[in-house]
Amino acid sequence: MPSGHLARRGCGENGQVLVGLPPVVSPATRFLLLGSFPGAASLRAGQYYAHPRNQFWPLVGALLGEDLVALDYAQRLERLRQRGLGLWDVYAACEREGSLDSAIRQPQPNDLAALVAGLPRLRGIAHNGGESARAMRVTRALGLPVFRLPSTSPANASWSFERKRAAWAEAFAATGLIP
Predict the structure, then answer these.
(1) The Uracil-DNA glycosylase-like domain covers which part of the protein (predicted)?
(2) Which of these, 36, 51, 81, 149, could form a disulfide with 131 (CB 3.0-4.6 Å)?
(3) Sign of dihedral through CA atoms 45, 51, 54, 55?
(4) pLDDT digits (tens, 9 = 90+) for 108-131
């Protein structure tokens, strides 16, 4: 199991506090995509958006004109870094049974201000879904454009892939990632 994803303390699922994944950024990061907290499949795999029905990788790939799904995880992350995209979550740790954001308890926030301070080329921040968007007061205070995007989670079945793609495309275009 990848290190740092499950810590045996507190009272999360099976008596565990769940610990999130590290940020995926580089000095070239221009746009930071923030989720809420990795789902169970992502924590088990030690990979962002590992659930096979999550539309994150197909959606971002479609926007960038690359088949990210066909790449292994390390290659996906390298492509994001090359294109100026960063990934992280608003919560560093929490208690939660299952994967639903509505089940998150005792969330511990990541230090978004410290991360952003180390990204000199950053031009915008986007929240992937409603739970992540609860931190918009924090991200707006960082002085950058902030976007609320529809969740790529399979739980957000009310939005079609094309509708999500259109909403995400606006944010990508506003920060200069796509024309």
Answers:
(1) 22-172
(2) 36
(3) positive
(4) 999 999 999 999 999 999 999 999
DSSP string, 30-50: -EEEEESS--HHHHHHTSTT-
**pTM of this prediction exceeds 0.85:** yes
The structural domains of the chain, with segments of one domain joined by +, span 21-90+109-174
SS3 at position 132: helix
Residue whose C-alpha is closest to residue 129's, from 49, 26, 22: 49
Q: Which CATH class is domain 21-90+109-174?
A: alpha beta
pLDDT, one tens digit per residue, over 30-88 is: 999 999 999 999 999 999 999 999 999 999 999 999 999 999 999 999 999 999 999 99
Q: Which residues are catalytic?
A: 54
Burial of 158 (0-12, 13-18, 19+ CB in 10 A): exposed
* Interacting residues of 158 by C-beta distance below 8 A, sequence separation 6+: none
